[in-house]
Design a protein that fits this description.
The protein is of the alpha/beta class. It has helices at residues 46-54, 79-85, 97-100, 107-118, 124-137, 154-166, 184-201, 212-218, 236-241, 246-253; strands at 4-13, 20-30, 35-39, 62-69, 72-73, 90-93, 172-176, 204-208, 221-226, 229-235, 300-301, 308-310. It has one domain (4-89, 168-314): 3-Layer(aba) Sandwich (Rossmann fold), CATH 3.40.50.300. Strands 6-7-8-3-9-10-12-11 form an eight-stranded mixed sheet, sandwiched between helices. A four-stranded antiparallel sheet has the order 2-1-4-5, covered by helices on one side.
């Protein structure tokens, strides 16, 4: 059994104009000790999928399918069970650390509050000791624990967020754009930190990002998401060397490297999920579109072991 096994997951937000299906029949697995990169353009459902795993989506949202973590279906679980897993076995690193850290609380207070929420009997002194140890592990001087978030740089605040996510040594870490707004040097340091901690804790990581370079460098597998659907999945090297879905090909061709002589992009824009196109959602932008692409969604095919693609080119 996989550490995380998502099967036919659908997440639909309720709005005044009608339902918005942000995740549509998605199936994904994360094994212990591996990193899966979830990529795609903004608004394609990546963050919604990550939040659905922890059950931190708005009340009234329709969730169907299953999210089995360590043998427990989190979709069917009650709030008490979710609270037990959140922050302890399942952790999330949010995009912007400055908006997630309380400016009126010291770093010590953040850790004490988190630890005592799961272990109420823990003394403040013991909680602070654990906080100092995990801060040292992410290369934050422990003697700065009494300072406030605004006294740290962006990179250090992100390290603090990672430390908060790792204080209980979770089995699965969901990193949602963990290097947003950071310069390339700090970005590399943060990702290298995550890689070393993953090895140390034998942890599974779901890396949510639009940065294909990060996925190429740090992930073991890649899942490409478009308009709520998973378009393609496979090993990182395999997908990068031989992308099969036209959307994946477009994303990779849009990446700039040292050999780039001409800028390329995917024409058009992602669809309005309130009024999505019929059939394959990528067909209005697809260079390989066929008549039946606009009438029904393509089945998931497996061209070879370890690869999955939702495209009529391979069905």
């Amino acid at each position: 059994m996989s550490l995380l096994d998502i099967s036919h997951l659908t997440v639909a937000y309720r709005t005044r104009s009608g339902p918005i299906v942000a995740v549509n029949d998605a199936t994904l697995r994360v094994e212990r000790g591996t990193t899966v990169g979830l990529v795609g353009e903004s608004g394609c459902g990546k963050s919604t999928l990550g939040k659905a795993i922890l059950g931190i989506i708005p009340e009234g949202t329709r969730v169907e399918g299953s999210i089995v973590f360590d043998g427990v279906d989190l979709v069917a679980a009650d709030e008490a069970t979710l609270q037990k897993y959140r922050g302890r076995n399942l952790s999330l690193v949010f995009q912007d650390p400055m908006t997630r850290l309380n400016p009126l609380m010291t770093i010590r207070d953040h850790f004490v509050e988190l630890i005592r929420a799961h272990e109420p009997e823990t003394e403040k002194e013991d909680a602070e000791k654990r906080a100092r140890e995990i801060l040292a592990a992410v290369r934050i001087p422990p003697d700065r624990i009494k300072q406030y978030p605004h006294e740290f740089s962006g990179g250090m605040r992100q390290r603090i967020m990672i430390a908060l996510a790792l204080v209980f040594r979770p089995s699965l870490l969901i990193a949602d754009e963990p290097t947003t707004s950071l310069d390339v040097i700090v970005e590399a340091q943060i990702l290298e930190l995550l890689r070393s901690i993953k090895r140390e804790f034998d942890m599974g990581v779901l890396l949510i990002t639009h940065n294909l370079g990060l996925v190429a460098e740090y992930a073991d597998e890649i899942a490409v998401m478009y308009a709520g659907h998973l378009a393609e999945r496979g090993g990182v090297l395999d997908v990068f060397e031989e992308p099969q879905h036209p959307y994946t090909k477009g994303l990779l061709e849009s990446v700039i490297d040292l050999d780039t002589t001409e800028l390329r992009s995917i024409p058009g824009q992602p669809p309005d999920l309130l009024h999505p196109p019929s059939g394959c959602p990528f067909h209005p932008r697809c260079p390989s579109v066929m008549p039946h692409c606009s009438t029904s969604f393509p089945p998931i095919t497996r061209p070879r072991e370890g690869r999955e693609v939702a495209c009529y080119l391979y069905s």
